[in-house]
Design brief:
There is one protein chain. The chain is an alpha+beta fold. The chain is built from 4 helices and 4 strands. It has one domain: 3-Layer(aba) Sandwich (Glutaredoxin), CATH 3.40.30. Helix content is 28%, strand content 18%. Strands 2-1-3-4 form a 4-stranded mixed sheet, sandwiched between helices. β3 and β4 form a beta hairpin. α2 crosses α4. It starts with a strand and ends in a 17-residue tail after the last strand.
């Protein structure tokens, strides 16, 4: 059994699709974290950025009006600025995010998350 954590937002259709996809994996022990209700600490965000296969800037929801109001580009943000931004505004974190062992992947599209699964669990 492979243990995994899904950073999930139930109101997000992509997050719901990812959850359904991952729940169908019989060898996956999936733990949900509703990150908007239980925001990640600065330390957890730092770890997540280190684990992220995607570029760190991909973790920021740049299309969100709250981010656009900042007048910044996600690509110009340092790791510390991303951590500070997402600590203060967890709703600006891209979702869903799957964490398995020391790797994390953003599920855009949700099927991208299957690349983190060990080959024995992929159908």
């Amino acid at each position: 059994m492979v243990s995994a954590t899904l950073l999930h937002h139930p109101q997000c259709s992509k997050s719901r699709q990812a959850l359904a996809l991952l729940e169908a994996e019989p060898q996956l022990a999936l733990h949900l974290r509703l990150y908007q209700q239980q925001p990640l600490s600065a330390e957890e965000l730092s770890t997540l950025l280190a684990q992220l296969i995607d570029p760190p800037s991909a973790l920021v929801r740049t299309g969100d009006a709250a981010f656009q109001a900042l007048g910044r580009s996600a690509e110009d943000l340092s790791h510390q600025e991303i951590i500070s931004l997402l600590s203060e505004h967890p709703q600006l974190m891209q979702r869903p995010v799957l964490i398995i062992e020391n790797q994390a992947k953003i599920g855009r599209p949700p099927e991208d998350l299957l690349s983190l699964l060990p080959t024995a669990t992929q159908g």
